[in-house]
Specification:
It contains 5 helices and 16 strands. It is α+β, with helices and mostly antiparallel strands. The chain starts with a helix and ends with a helix.
């Protein structure tokens, strides 16, 4: 294979059989169960990276179960994880702390393209009689269970769509071949072309179980604030880099060296 062919074909790994196709990535009938709860603000301070800021007075976490039955390129899969409300230079949004899903393509694509913190696990989202149920199993162990009364009340569609339109922030880390960080960036992305098909709220509960490799319980549930069930079509927009930790470190090192030379 010629070098020009390598450059032309190289958008993902493996070169001759990529784990996912090029975007855009459109999702049809995407279904969410999002349970917002209050947690320990000291735990949030330990987890959320600067320059993102958390509202320590509210100390909120959104636990999400997401069913994706029809996604271009990625197929049919389910996802679960925690998103922390944050602000960045005055803009409100969410920081994706952890994600667990059951499909190789979006795990590889999510990590390589955007920096989604994705790991392999077994989440589910389903309706059982009068209850919407989300679960997350890591190996044979249940680490999260969320429940909500099914479609008890319609939610405010304008508020739900505004929340879906907020930016989300990710910490993208790709190592060099020697194990040192080659990319360490704060990435921002948005959902695009959102068609909101419905949103409902109701009573909810969330149980998190400690696990060494799926530590969702490290952000403990102190109080359930709200829950929402959403159905929508949308496109997952590609990201932009809003903060480069390595360049910032390099500039800081340069200033330190200059001071050393002066003294």
């Amino acid at each position: 294979m010629r070098e020009t062919d390598v450059k032309r074909r190289a958008f993902a790994m493996p070169l001759t059989n990529p784990a996912y196709p090029p975007g855009p990535y459109r999702f049809v009938d995407r279904e969410y169960l999002i349970i917002t709860y209050r947690t320990d603000p000291a735990k949030l301070r330990e987890i959320v990276p600067e320059p993102l800021e958390v509202n320590e007075r509210e100390a909120l976490v959104k636990y999400e179960f997401i069913r994706m039955p029809d996604s271009s390129g990625f197929g049919d899969y389910t996802e679960s994880g925690q998103v922390i409300p944050v602000s960045f230079r005055g803009r409100e949004g969410g920081y994706t702390h952890c994600m667990f899903l059951n499909d190789e393509g979006p795990i590889a694509g999510g990590r390589e393209l955007w920096g989604f913190p994705k790991k392999l696990a077994q989440p589910t989202l389903r309706t059982e009689t009068d209850t919407l149920i989300g679960t997350l199993d890591y190996g044979p162990l249940r680490v999260a269970t969320g429940t909500m009364g099914y479609k008890h009340r319609e939610a405010d569609l304008a508020k739900v769509k505004a929340a879906l339109n907020e930016p989300t922030f990710l910490l993208k880390i790709i190592p060099h071949v020697d194990g040192s960080p080659r990319i360490c960036e704060l990435v921002q992305y948005r959902l695009e072309d959102i068609v909101l098909k419905g949103a409902w709220t109701g009573p909810a509960a969330l149980a998190l179980t400690p696990h060494a490799l799926a530590p969702v319980a490290e952000l403990p549930v102190l109080e359930i604030i709200s829950a929402v069930h959403i159905r929508a079509d949308l496109t997952l927009g590609l990201g932009t880099v809003v903060h480069d930790y390595l360049q910032h470190q390099a500039r800081g090192s340069t200033r330190t060296n200059e001071k050393a030379l002066v003294f």
